[in-house]
Amino acid sequence: MKTIVSVLGLASLIALAACDSKQENKVENAYENQADAIDNQADNMEAMADNLSGNAEAAAENAADALENKADATREAGEKAGDSVEKREAQ
Fold it and tell me: Keywords on this record (predicted)?
């Protein structure tokens, strides 16, 4: 699922890249890099969960899910911040 979302996100960024300003891209890339780092933490947490059992495994999986949600929220915030930059530059 993450692969599909990543591919769709990348396709969206490529499609929008032609009309984005350098400043907007810089802002969005900063947020995207943060989100990627959070996703990596989630992946590590999921790998750790594979080595656990019972409640510990469930807790690690829940933590990984929370990290993935945080990464998604970070990407959305980056898009909004980029849109804000674009609107300011258009004025």
Answer: Signal
